[in-house]
Amino acid sequence: MITEDYIADLVKKAITSDNLFLVEVLVDKNNGIKVILDSDKTVAISDCISISKSVEKNLDRDEQDFSLEVTSAGVGQPLKLIRQYSKHIGKQLEVTIDSGLVLSGELKAVTNDCIKLEENATKKKREEHEGNSLFHKFNMNNIKMAKAIITI
Prior knowledge:
Distance between the termini: 44 Å
CATH architecture of the largest domain: 2-Layer Sandwich
Strand content: 35-45%
Number of strands: 8
Mean pLDDT: 91
Order of helices and strands: HEEHEHEEEHEE
Radius of gyration: 19 Å
Helix content: 10-25%
Number of domains: 2
Number of helices: 4
Largest sheet: 5 strands, antiparallel
Low-confidence stretches: none
């Protein structure tokens, strides 16, 4: 059986750039393998091809049939790793916390265990707080989901 841990180890060994990193490996019951990569800069198609070839050469289709997809973390997909948050400082995020509360705002800071968000508050809400910005600090353990807000 092909495991997520085994594929993750193969991917980590194949990554040669300090900017490139593994976000997630998914393996379904039919050995459909999906590898999601991200980068501090950009993920090139050549990065995905290189990782795909490296993983595939370590698997034997005669032993187990599989499908393999290596892709970059898409725009608008939920952020999963603290490293992904860092490249979104100064950008708009939508954050859902454990309680179900959803806030959107500009990501101001990231540490090893929390983020600081300046909320996009309505005029009324700002007036209630005497014009002050509304800053929120969220522990990573309390974030249910966060994703970048794409504006055109």
